[in-house]
Amino acid sequence: MQKETMNPGRGKRPLLVMKFGGTSVGSPERMQNVAKLVQEHARDAEVVVVVSAMGGVTDMLIRAANEAAKGDREHFKGVRQELARRHREVADQLLTASEQASVLPRLAEQIRQFEDLCSGFALVREVTPRAMDTLSSMGEVMSAKLQAAILRSLGADSEAVDAMNLIITDDNFGNASPLMEETIAKTRQGLAALRKRGAIPVITGFRGASRSGVCTTLGRGGSDYSATLIGAALDADEVWIWTDVDGVMTADPRLVPEARILPEISYREAIELSFFGAKVLHPKTILPVMKKKIPVWIKNSFNPACPGTKIGPAAANGQPGVKAITSVSKAHLITVSGRETLSFPQLAARVFGALGAEEIPTLMVTQSSADNVLCFAVHDADLKRAKAKLEKSFELELLHDARAAIEVLPHVAIVVAIGENMKGTPGLAGRAFGALGRRGINIIAIAQGSTELSISFAVKATEMKDAVKAIHEEFQL
Ligand code: ADP
Ligand code: ASP
Ligand code: MG
């Protein structure tokens, strides 16, 4: 445990929030390993656990709902068997007989609810975002119940806690935002009795509830965010995110096998990396802990001896220049032209007004004043909505042809070089251009903010992997 960062004012044992991702709870052996890690750290610290669904379960649930909504009554029955088999296997292998007797009926109840919901979707040929949230976060309910029961079977005092009673959100189903004041109050209240008793809470990641008590989710990969929300609400000393890699790396290891672990990165670097596609962290993970300066560690549950990556207020060993490369593989560039009808400020106001109304994030933005065009990249998932909203917003200009134009350049990737200490280091962009140019990779658009925290390049989606490798190599990461 990194004692030097623990809260000395607490006087008691430090409080650690530990989140375990899907692969870390993916099988009976992995869940046994989680129990071991939790028990080991619970000797010196107060531990609050947050779990994801068992690896692959959330994908299975979502697919089952979508197939049911298309009218397929068979597919979800197969998923039902698989869900029952995977969770039952854990219970069979790791729970005492009395724990099995109490947990198995509760798992069966979840699986029944899954089947009832899917039958309903098949009947009405629809799945609403609201119903999808209840269904897609059932995996967390089951894994939390099992993980707490495993801890009890090993003699620890532990209870599963449904985050619907702790994390209160708006009702933006599928990507809800927490209401912080209520979440703080509910989390403290909801965990008080267990903490007083010295029991280890095992909380469902990913899900919360709206003010009226309806289940919501925090977006795919949202259990990381659940952990920091709970950490911030409890004024935890640290949040540890246990995953399947040794820490945050200089690039996605699936794209660049020679990527290296970064021992330390800053909050701002972590936000930038996750916003631009580094799956290791949900993009909103850092927000709750930033103000309170609570450190977040990324650690490998398959290799706990490795210290991992510390994410904190400022990286001490700030090496100059580029620190990491990330990329968004599925994006599109939209160019809106105001022709001679709209001034550039009017054009920009209309475009961002339209995107803002739909909460559509842009990945990069550039302008050309001479052509009176604004160009920006959006995620593949947002393209349809962005285009429809823009077309509506410029309806009149588009009707009177030649007064405005909206064009889409499809299938681009956004490659982003990130580093807090790029600021004031001349020549970095030039080196990146050179590296791409030597490999014959054409840069379609570039953007760098005045904070110089990152430089983004839009390239053809098919050239993304080469572009990431080229920049990684150029900066000898
Ligand atoms: P979990 O299920 O534990 O939440 P995720 O699959 O969501 O795990 O995130 C971990 C994965 O993120 C790694 O296996 C790795 O493939 C991917 N990844 C992408 N970019 C990076 C990066 N820069 N550093 C580390 N891992 C990365
Ligand atoms: N199980 C959820 C997902 O797969 C949340 C998470 O794992 O963080 O998206
Ligand atoms: Mg994840």
Walk me through the structure.
- It contains 15 helices and 17 strands.
- By secondary structure, the protein is an alpha/beta fold.
- β1, α1 and β2 (46-51) form a beta-alpha-beta unit.
- The chain is globular and about 75 Å long.
- The strands form 3 sheets. The chain has an 8-stranded mixed β-sheet, with helices on both faces. A 6-stranded antiparallel β-sheet has the order 13-14-12-15-17-16.
- It folds into 2 domains: 13-243, Carbamate kinase (3-Layer(aba) Sandwich); 324-474, VC0802-like (2-Layer Sandwich).
- Magnesium ion binds at residues 21, 221, 224.
Bound molecules: adenosine-5'-diphosphate, aspartic acid, magnesium ion
Share of helical residues: 40-55%
How much of the sequence lies in strands comes to 15-25%
The CATH homologous superfamily of the largest domain: Acetylglutamate kinase-like
What integer is the average pLDDT?
Answer: 93
Predict the CATH topology of the largest domain. Carbamate kinase
* Overall 3D shape: globular
In the sheet with the most strands, the strands line up as 3-5-2-1-8-10-11-9
Brief synopsis:
By secondary structure, this protein is an alpha/beta fold. It has 15 helices and 17 strands.
Fold topology:
Blueprint: E1 15-20, H1 28-42, E2 46-51, H2 57-69, H3 75-94, H4 97-124, H5 129-136, H6 138-153, E3 158-161, E4 168-169, H7 180-197, E5 200-204, E6 207-210, E7 215-217, H8 223-233, E8 238-243, E9 264-266, H9 267-275, H10 287-290, E10 296-300, E11 309-312, E12 324-337, H11 344-357, E13 364-368, E14 373-379, H12 383-393, H13 395-399, E15 405-418, H14 428-438, E16 445-448, E17 454-460, H15 464-474
Parallel strand pairs: 1-2, 1-8, 2-5, 3-5, 4-6, 8-10, 9-11
Antiparallel strand pairs: 6-7, 10-11, 12-14, 12-15, 13-14, 15-17, 16-17
Helix pairs in contact: 1-3, 2-3, 2-4, 3-4, 3-6, 4-6, 7-8, 11-12, 14-15
